[in-house]
């Protein structure tokens, strides 16, 4: 690891100024992704600004909005009574990710900012436009079993590995950030980016901006929600595909549906066309299969991830079947 | 956790170093010092400026020292304090061999910067037994043959104790799920689950 300066300011303003003062400075949260990348010389900040003791922890409810402080650890969210009661989908998604140790360390802000990445990003002997812009993409013609089927470019076909982000996308979260120019709110849909010609940028957060909170509206989806993650082993592995399904039901009729996927794109992927189709439909396997076909229009696979074109729709159907109560887990 | 102890580098020491003749040659700013170190010009100079002061309680004993900010909690334990019970497996957060408790919660010491534990209480495998009397989880691992080569065992045991304390050991499936961050290359998993299940059912204080 290259040498860096470590500072731990007591105030948010000082922390933001400390990052703004150095071109390569970074905020340090749980460090579970950043330190890993620093050890491999993939990220080489010259200054780390430890924000973990800033007063940005905790979960509060104001009216119809739940606010999660950016430094709230993943475990705290997954076990919080307010979350379990109102947003069980979020707890399910978080518990499907990483390991108990990593969930104890990882912060909400840090999880949002974990790098969209693939094995070629880690392999410094291979080209990667995300790691070194302009060098090419090793995965395009390489071993691309884990890679994207939606929204990719010829510059990058990596997927965002976060489970939490998929639930936040389905639940229409907002990311609250603070920076040298003041506070702003970024809808989750606009927070992460597609790779386009600049895969080195995962998000639309400015370098000097600090995530301070995530807000989520309490939805009528809480009772009929399910997060289904399919992976190579039963626990502690990235998704091959995952589906966050949430339904607002009136008896057997779907008033409104929310669907998002992980493991398929550079950002958490919302399935709006399928949601529109499901509105006012009856919860039947036939309707769910049709929704899944609609969701996968435009999906395109590479040499080694053809299986996702079948696994994806099947996972959507299964997630919807469990969420609606049509099937048990 | 000690919430309110900001750490900022010792400005007077830095000012002093800036003025010293050895250093004027590299037109010293913090960034320049780091560049100097990264280019191996004079790592000692840069390190002296950028060291971090740390006071941390490990297994009941307080340690106060200055450390290189790059030091992971794992390296602090093993290299600086010679507490070699905590093992370095992958060093990238994938295997769980380095699991310790910080303020009562299990974390990966390889991905924890030691500097971030300032003011915290750390428990390692060395802090689990009561003198010569093994912790119930240690005894259960021996009884059930919860290991073969033993390299992952300290991490498994620290994780297993936390697993019960968290209330995540109510069934074999739940134990497997909440122990998934600890990899055992020898494949002692069934016996590890047996050990945890027995301690959990025994109701002893862990």
TrEMBL record, chain A:
Stored InterPro entries: CO_DH_flav_C, CO_DH_flav_C_dom_sf, Diverse_Substr_Oxidored, FAD-bd_PCMH, FAD-bd_PCMH-like_sf, FAD-bd_PCMH_sub1, FAD-bd_PCMH_sub2, Mopterin_DH_FAD-bd
Q: Which residues form the FAD-binding PCMH-type domain?
A: 1-221
Keywords of the record: FAD, Flavoprotein
Top-level lineage group: Bacteria
Asked whether the UniProt record includes Lyase among its keywords, one would answer no
Query: In the record, what terms sit under GO molecular function?
Result: FAD binding; oxidoreductase activity
Q: Does the keyword Flavoprotein belong to this entry?
A: yes
Q: What is this protein called?
A: Xanthine dehydrogenase family protein subunit M
Which species does this protein come from?
Ilyomonas limi
UniProtKB/TrEMBL annotation, chain B:
Q: Report the PROSITE patterns cross-referenced here.
A: 2FE2S_FER_1, 2FE2S_FER_2, TAT
SUPFAM superfamilies in alphabetical order: 2Fe-2S ferredoxin-like, CO dehydrogenase ISP C-domain like
Which GO terms label this protein's molecular function in UniProt? 2 iron, 2 sulfur cluster binding; metal ion binding; oxidoreductase activity, acting on the aldehyde or oxo group of donors
Describe the location of the 2Fe-2S ferredoxin-type domain by residue ranges.
Answer: 52-128
The protein's UniProt keywords, in alphabetical order, are: 2Fe-2S, Iron, Iron-sulfur, Metal-binding, Oxidoreductase
The record's PANTHER family line, in alphabetical order, gives: OXIDOREDUCTASE WITH IRON-SULFUR SUBUNIT, OXIDOREDUCTASE, IRON-SULPHUR BINDING SUBUNIT-RELATED-RELATED
Listed name of the protein: 2Fe-2S iron-sulfur cluster binding domain-containing protein
Cite the source lineage: Bacteria, Pseudomonadati, Bacteroidota, Chitinophagia, Chitinophagales
């Amino acid at each position: 690891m290259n040498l860096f300066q470590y500072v731990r300011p007591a105030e948010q303003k000082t922390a933001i100024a400390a990052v703004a003062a150095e071109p390569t400075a970074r905020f340090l949260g749980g460090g579970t992704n950043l330190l890993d990348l620093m050890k491999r010389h993939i990220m080489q900040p010259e200054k780390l600004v430890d924000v973990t003791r800033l007063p940005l922890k905790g979960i509060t409810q104001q009216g119809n909005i739940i606010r999660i402080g950016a430094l709230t650890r993943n475990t705290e969210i997954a076990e919080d009574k307010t979350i379990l009661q109102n947003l069980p989908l979020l707890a399910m998604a978080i518990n499907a990710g990483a390991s108990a140790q990593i969930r104890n360390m990882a912060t909400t802000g840090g999880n949002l900012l974990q790098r969209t990445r693939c094995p070629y990003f880690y392999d410094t002997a291979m080209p990667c436009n995300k790691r070194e812009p302009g060098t090419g993409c090793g995965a395009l013609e390489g071993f691309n079993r884990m890679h994207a089927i939606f929204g990719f470019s010829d510059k990058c076909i990596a997927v965002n590995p976060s489970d939490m982000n998929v639930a936040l996308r389905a639940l229409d979260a907002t990311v609250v950030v603070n920076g040298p120019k003041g506070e702003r709110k970024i809808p989750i849909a606009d927070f992460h980016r597609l790779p386009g010609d600049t895969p080195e940028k995962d998000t639309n957060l400015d370098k000097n901006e600090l995530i301070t909170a995530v807000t989520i509206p309490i939805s009528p989806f809480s009772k009929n929600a399910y997060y289904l993650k399919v992976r190579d082993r039963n626990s502690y592995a990235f998704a091959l595909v995952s589906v966050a399904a949430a339904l607002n039901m009136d008896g057997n009729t779907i008033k409104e549906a929310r669907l998002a996927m992980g493991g398929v794109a550079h950002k958490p992927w919302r399935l709006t066309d399928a949601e529109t189709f499901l509105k006012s439909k009856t919860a039947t396997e036939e309707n769910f299969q049709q929704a899944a076909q609609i969701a996968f229009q435009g999906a395109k696979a590479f040499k080694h991830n053809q299986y996702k074109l079948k696994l994806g729709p099947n996972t959507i159907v299964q997630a919807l079947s469990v969420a609606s109560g049509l099937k048990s887990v | 956790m000690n919430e309110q102890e900001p750490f900022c580098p010792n400005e007077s020491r830095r000012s002093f170093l800036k003025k010293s003749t050895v250093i004027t040659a590299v037109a010293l700013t913090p960034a320049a010092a780091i560049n100097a170190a990264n280019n191996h010009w004079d790592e000692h100079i840069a390190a002296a400026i950028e060291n971090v002061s740390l006071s941390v309680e490990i297994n009941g004993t307080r340690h106060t020292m200055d450390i290189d900010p790059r030091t992971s909690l794992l390296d602090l334990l093993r290299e600086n304090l010679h507490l070699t019970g905590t093992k370095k497996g992958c060093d990238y957060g994938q295997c769980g061999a380095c699991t310790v408790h910080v303020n009562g919660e299990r974390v990966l010491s390889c991905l924890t910067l030691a500097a971030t534990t300032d003011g915290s209480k750390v428990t390692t495998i060395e802090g689990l037994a009561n003198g010569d009397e093994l912790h119930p989880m240690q005894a259960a691992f021996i009884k059930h043959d919860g290991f073969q080569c033993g390299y992952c065992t300290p991490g498994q045991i620290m994780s297993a104790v936390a697993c019960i304390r968290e209330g995540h050991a109510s069934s074999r499936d739940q134990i497997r799920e909440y122990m998934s961050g600890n990899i055992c290359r020898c494949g002692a998993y069934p016996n590890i689950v047996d050990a945890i299940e027995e301690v959990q059912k025994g109701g002893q204080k862990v």
